[in-house]
Write a structure and sequence with these properties.
Length: about 160
């Protein structure tokens, strides 16, 4: 059994040495959950959440394309997905994608025009769709859906 003085001395010694140690099980539990909720958002996390949101909206992530991976190398601060789909599907997909992103902790920001905006940690995400009236090269009845997430803290 630890005495309060021994526990405090141990904690002080560890802190001075650059280490931290939980004093008891309750502290260990709260420390673990606090660090889990503040862990950095990685590119892989964003990619996984973006693909899950696309799938949740009823779209196939494999049918789109990305510009964030070239020659097998992933850009560390960029995740995107672009696809041409029927306009009716695009109109239904964006709100579903947004709802799934929000369930994963992304915070909605006020949209600009028809572009949905979200943020999570240092990442910002833009989601939009537009049809042949804005992009004449699209077939009539088709829309382009574009999702772009950028790590604003990424220096590269």
């Amino acid at each position: 059994m630890k005495t309060p003085l021994a526990t405090m001395t141990l904690a002080l010694a560890l802190a001075l040495a650059g280490c931290t140690a939980p004093v008891d099980d309750a502290t260990a539990s709260s420390t673990a959950s606090a660090s889990a909720s503040t862990s950095p958002v990685t590119r892989d996390t964003v990619d996984k959440e973006l693909r899950a949101a696309i799938q949740q909206a009823g779209l196939d992530p494999a049918k789109g394309m990305t510009t964030a991976e070239r020659n097998g190398k992933k850009h560390p601060g960029l995740v995107d997905w672009i696809a041409t789909i029927p306009t009716a599907e695009a109109e239904q997909a964006l709100p579903k994608i947004g709802a799934e992103l929000e369930r994963n902790g992304w915070k909605a920001e006020p949209p600009i025009d028809s572009v949905l905006r979200y943020k999570k940690s240092g990442w910002r995400l833009l989601a939009s769709s537009f049809g042949s009236s804005k992009m004449p090269t699209l077939a009539e009845g088709s829309s382009m859906v574009q999702l772009n997430a950028s790590d604003l803290t990424d220096a590269g």
